[in-house]
């Protein structure tokens, strides 16, 4: 799949836009889509340059040639980790709703964008050259649209079966021992990902670099996109393309 990186004042080439946090996210999502038949060339993937820049990315997107033909805009971002008073998932949902609602025309309905209803998407109005456009908006919070974590969380779940049990015990023990030296979960999880990659005995490996490594059957050697850990994200991508039926999403009734 040939995903296009976004640049201001360029053409919006597809009617379906997917905005992600960064280059690594783009590489992983592109690789995942390659394993899903029928998805090639249907999504324009945009590097949002960080979740805090999503509002600016939307503003830039509206200036591109072809925006009038956009039917769906979706986001993928990490949940990261929340405080004790608010879960990471709930906080991330709240931030995404704010980003989307501020970009769209206010509607009579309150809290228009839910993102975790029976589908991941809701329709909203966007003003463009004095004309209102109906656009579907949605978002997915990594790793599973329910838990704290990030892209690395999914990749680690997929990589771990490729490491022998004794080595995994050493990794987990070492990681747990060092956790107190990190100021936050985010840095610890990125460090843990590097330990797992080192256990694969690949020099200077990164998530992006191992995506270039395939076996003789042209399958990814180290990340198994058929692993069940990817199923929730695949549900979202299926819905993004064709609004195919999915299992009911997890409710945020505790929000």
Describe this structure in words.
With 255 residues, the chain is of the alpha/beta class. The chain folds into two domains: 16-147 and 231-242, Rossmann fold (3-Layer(aba) Sandwich); 151-224, no CATH class. It contains eight helices and five strands, in the order E-H-E-H-E-H-E-E-H-H-H-H-H. A five-stranded mixed sheet has the order 2-1-3-5-4, sandwiched between helices. A hairpin with a 2-residue loop joins strand 4 and strand 5 (131-142). It starts with 15 loop residues before the first strand and ends in a 13-residue tail after the last helix. Residues 1-9, 108-118 and 243-255 have low confidence and may be disordered.
Give the helix level as a range of percent: 25-40%
Poorly predicted spans: 1-9, 108-118, 243-255
Give the CA-CA distance, first to last residue: 37 Å
Number-wise, the strands total 5
**Largest sheet, order of strands side by side?**
2-1-3-5-4
CATH-defined fold name of the largest domain: Rossmann fold
Alpha carbon gyration radius: 19 Å
Spell the H/E element sequence. EHEHEHEEHHHHH
State the assembly state of the protein chains.
single chain
Task: Output the number of helix runs.
Answer: 8
The CATH architecture of the largest domain can be named as 3-Layer(aba) Sandwich
Query: If you average the pLDDT, what whole number results?
Result: 78
Biggest β-sheet description: 5 strands, mixed
- CATH class of the largest domain equals Alpha Beta
Structural shape: globular
Structural class: alpha/beta
Strand coverage percent: 5-15%
Number of domains: 2
């Amino acid at each position: 799949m040939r995903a296009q990186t976004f640049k201001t004042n360029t053409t919006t080439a597809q009617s379906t836009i997917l905005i992600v946090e960064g280059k690594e996210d783009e590489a992983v999502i592109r690789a995942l889509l390659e394993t899903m038949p029928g998805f090639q060339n249907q999504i324009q993937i945009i590097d949002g340059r960080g979740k805090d820049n999503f509002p600016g990315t939307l503003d830039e997107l509206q200036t591109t040639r072809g925006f009038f033909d956009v039917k769906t805009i979706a986001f993928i971002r990490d949940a990261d980790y929340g405080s004790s008073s608010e879960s990471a998932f709930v906080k991330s949902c709240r931030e995404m709703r704010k980003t989307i609602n501020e970009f769209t025309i206010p509607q009579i309905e309150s809290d228009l964008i839910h993102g975790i209803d029976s589908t991941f998407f809701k329709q909203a109005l966007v003003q463009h050259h004095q004309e209102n456009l109906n656009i579907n908006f949605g978002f997915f919070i990594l790793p599973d649209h329910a838990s704290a974590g990030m892209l690395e969380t999914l990749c680690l779940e997929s990589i771990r079966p490729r490491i022998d049990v004794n080595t995994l015990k050493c990794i987990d023990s070492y990681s747990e021992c060092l956790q107190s030296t990190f100021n936050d979960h985010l840095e610890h999880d990125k460090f843990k990902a590097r330990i797992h990659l080192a256990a694969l005995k690949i020099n200077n490996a990164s998530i992006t670099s191992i995506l270039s490594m395939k076996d003789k059957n042209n399958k990814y050697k180290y990340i198994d996109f058929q692993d069940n850990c990817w199923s929730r994200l695949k549900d979202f991508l299926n819905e993004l393309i064709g609004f195919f039926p999915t299992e009911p999403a997890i409710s945020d009734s505790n929000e």
